[in-house]
Structure formats: structure tokens, C-alpha cells
Amino acid sequence: MLTQSLAVVLRALRKTRELTQERLPSSRSYAFALEAGTSKNISLGKLRELSKSLEITPLALMVLCESIESEQDSLDVIGKLKEELRQLRSIGLDEEIREEQRSSSLVSKAKAREIADSKRLAVKRLKEEGKSRKEVAEALGISKSSVQRFWV
């Protein structure tokens, strides 16, 4: 189980680097739960903080966990990772990732707010013109639930 593998790696890294639990991010109880394998979830942000405090990249941390999970040497895990990445590249994943970045489905909060404000104004304008919620949704190409949210 990944939580158990993470616990083993954390304890080993902390001992190897001669660090106390206080050096780990968040509260001592959270660090204890991670090292005990009783914490069920860890966010990506916490994983990054944890890795930084242990002076290791998140990827290296995950490789070490995977080596426990798969009962393989960590360098063998890296070899499999390289092959997996080569296969993903061969089917066009790199280009798809770049396209996703360009089309920016990852919108900043400010941009998202700007888009929401624009939709809110458009819904208000069409509502004032006497359009129904269904007609507004169709005219703007947004869901009826979005129209409902902006209808007020």
C-alpha cells in the first residue's frame, strides 16, 4: 500500500539525513501520521513541501515508494519509467501536453473571474431581453446550471 511505502521512505530519509519530525512541514501530528502510515491522503502541495524539507525531489520520493511497492531496485524503477515515458512520447503525449498548456485549460484565478463576470453580464443582458434560461444557455453555449448560477 502506497501509504505504508511512503511511511517507510520518510522514516528512512529522515534518519539518513538526521532530521527530526519537527523539520517536516505542517504539524508534528501530521508528520507522525505520515510516518506511521495512518494518513490516508497527501496533497500534491504537501508532497512538494515534504520533499523540499527532506532535500529530495517529489519524483525521487515517488520512485523510492514505487521501488518498495514493486519490490524492485529504485534504479530499475527509473529504467521502467524511462521506457514508459518513451512510449508516451511515441504516441504524441509531449505535443498534447504543450497544446493543453497553450490552450490553457489551466486558467488563472483572475482570468477565471474575468470569464465568470463576462458570462454573468451576458446572462443578465439576455434575461433583460426576456429570454428563458434554456434560451440563454443555448445562446451562450453554457450549461443550464451555469445560467441558473448567474440568473440572480
From TrEMBL:
SUPFAM superfamilies in UniProt: lambda repressor-like DNA-binding domains (SSF47413)
Source taxon at top rank: Bacteria
Domain HTH cro/C1-type intervals: 10-61
Name of the protein in its database record: Helix-turn-helix domain-containing protein
Highest classification ranks of the organism: Bacteria, Pseudomonadati, Pseudomonadota, Gammaproteobacteria, Pseudomonadales
